Amino acid sequence: MERELSRLKEQREKALTTAAEPINRRYRDELQKLLRQASDDKDATAAALVIQAMNTPLEFESQHTDVLKFLMASNWGIKGASDVFEFRLDGSIAQLGGGWKTKSWKLAKDGKSVRVEYEKNGYQDWTISGGVMYHPTLGAFQPLPKPAKIK
Fold this sequence. Notes:
Elements: H1 2-40, H2 44-55, H3 65-72, E1 75-77, E2 84-87, E3 93-96, E4 102-107, E5 113-118, E6 123-129, E7 132-135, E8 139-144
Antiparallel strand pairs: 1-2, 1-8, 2-3, 4-5, 5-6, 6-7, 7-8
């Protein structure tokens, strides 16, 4: 029994690491582009920030990749409401409709909530449970088909 449990845990970790690889590779590639741009612009401050990001270990290299993929595989909305959100790899949120404009998002370290920052109104933590995200005042956000990127 212990052997089987150990084997299952190893398989899960390997699968999570494999799933995270393309996300992390894209992130590193984009950082390289930013560094080249900062260098071309002779912007030492921006270059230092990018180098710092490049030297910072990625928190979720082998954790929560299933949650990240789940968030980015769909747009998110409430049935009957006009708000639709797209969570992007770079931490930005594209929003269609709605009143309060979102600015950015970050997955909590435990992988069970998303902190959404608004342009003018601070932030809120949206809980993830059972394939749904729960907004503290609006209720359940459902995954919606993702036909195209929101501009």
